[in-house]
Amino acid sequence: KPQTTRNRIQTVYTEDRGQIIFIDTPGIHKAKNKLGEYMVNVAERTLGGVDLILWLVEPSTYIGAGEQHIIEKLNRCKTPVILVINKIDTVKKEEILTCIAAYKDLCNFVEIVPVSALKGENTGDLMDAIYRYMPEGPMYYDEDTITDQPERQIAAELIREKALRLLNDEIPHGIAVVIDRMKERPNNGRNTSAAGGIMDIDATIICEKDSHKGIIIGKSGSMLKQIGTQARVEIENLLDCRVNLQLWVKVKKDWRDSDFLIKNYGFDSKDFDL
């Protein structure tokens, strides 16, 4: 979904050919509130600090104001850009070719690579293209590292991702997740960092309206239970231990226009220019 990434998320991919650090940024868009301004700040500042940009689009020939806005930014940027057309498994080959034709002259793309992330189609070609344009450099992380994000932040993102997925378009992107408590609990005298231990997590889902709170909770708490169940499974896989996840929902009207609340809900203050 557009504009679901809010913080800069850094992941590490290591193989025999080398190590690549991928930085997933919020999308560049016309900001409608202070949170939107923050997200655009994060994305634009990142453009100048990387070796290669991957612009991910869907296979459509429609190029609207949002796409034109991004193209203007990319054309002013000196960093090489690969256009990645995703979801090619959902359209015919002719539509992919038409999409390539629509985009190819709008920006000086070094390559255009159609892929299906879901089916894994052409992802090898994309990796080959990435390596062609990445400069040689030191290995910044050990080969077992997959991200530099703190566990609390990843847990919050997993909860928010499940909420957005289950709620579909019923709730706009005006929700945040705050981890109130994340504490290890010994289990039979064993360290909880090992399999079989328990991690207690209390988290609050923040929304902007009372009507949104009701939708998030659902009838007799059914929606909140679904969000919690699905998020718990993902967090257990992340932490490799049992998780006791408790969720609450709170209303904070217009929090996306509050400097204090935006920062208080975990958005990195160094990325602000508010």
Quote the beta fraction. 15-25%
CATH superfamily annotation of the largest domain: P-loop containing nucleotide triphosphate hydrolases
CATH class of the largest domain: Alpha Beta
Task: Please write the string of helix (H) and strand (E) elements.
Answer: EEHEHEHEHHEEHHEH
Helix content: 25-40%
The outline comes out as globular
Gyration radius (Cα, Å) is 20 Å
Straight-line N-to-C gap: 26 Å
Total domain count = 2
Which structural class should the secondary elements be placed in?
alpha/beta
Instruction: Determine the mean pLDDT.
Output: 86
Count of discrete alpha- or pi-helical segments spanning 4 or more residues: 8
Task: Quote the CATH topology of the largest domain.
Answer: Rossmann fold
- The name of the CATH architecture of the largest domain is 3-Layer(aba) Sandwich
Strand order of the largest sheet: 3-4-5
Briefly say what this structure is.
The chain is of the alpha/beta class. Helices cover 35% and strands 21% of the residues.
How would you describe the overall organization of this protein?
- The model is unreliable at 1-6 (pLDDT under 50).
- The protein is globular.
- The chain folds into two domains: 9-133, Rossmann fold (3-Layer(aba) Sandwich); 151-271, GMP Synthetase, Chain A, domain 3.
- The chain is of the alpha/beta class.
- The strands form three sheets. The protein has a three-stranded parallel β-sheet with strand order 3-4-5, with helices on both faces. A three-stranded mixed β-sheet has the order 6-7-8.
- Helix content is 35%, strand content 21%.
